[in-house]
Amino acid sequence: MKRTERLHALSEMLRRSGAGGRTAGSLANEFGVSVRTIKRDLDALENSGAPIWSRPGPGGGYGVAGRANLPPITLTPAQAVALLAAVTAAPDAPYADLAAAGIRKIVDVLDPRTRVKADEIARRIWVNADSPVARTVSSALEQAMSEQLVVRIRYTSANGSTTTRDVEPVIFALSGGRWYMISWCRLRHDMRWFLLQRIERASVTRMPCEGHDVEEIGIPPVAARSIQL
User: Fold this and answer.
1) How far apart are CA 143 and CA 164, in angstroms?
2) Is 140 in the same domain as 213?
3) Which residue has the higher pLDDT, 105 or 167?
């Protein structure tokens, strides 16, 4: 597990541990690292603004101040369920795991009445959507895209041929209900659309991308649009 992923998981674990918190030793065992490494991670979280508390001595430990990581949020029950449904129905979307973690944070700070009503609506929505992309693959692709690093992939094309190639990720694109990573392929020296379902393995290198931009992909379809915050 990369340090950025461990920091996120550590924050979530502390938040869910409640008022009791966790000891540095138990956290170290959980993540398979040393106590010294965990304490460095806790310092990094605190320096980033996370409301980490600590209690010294027997029975002490570390935790996150309750409800301090998000301000009060006002959502209708339907809005809350809409967020849950969207994330649950698209498990293979880029950064879906992070989106799900974000939704859990929002749900945790809803007022009790809204939460009860949202639960009632949510029980009336069923989703049957298994992710076809291995978590190890999607995690590597997401990191490569975010940090703009070359990623080495093992890819099987539509005709059944399998190659290992280094690619520079440019965008993720949803087309025809399927997710692609459009990248500059160093093997073919051209832009290529890689269907995520056909990427068997992926590992992030330390080589930076060379600056290939969206314009090199060509003119997008009329109905295509980027996500806007």
Assistant:
1) 19
2) yes
3) 167
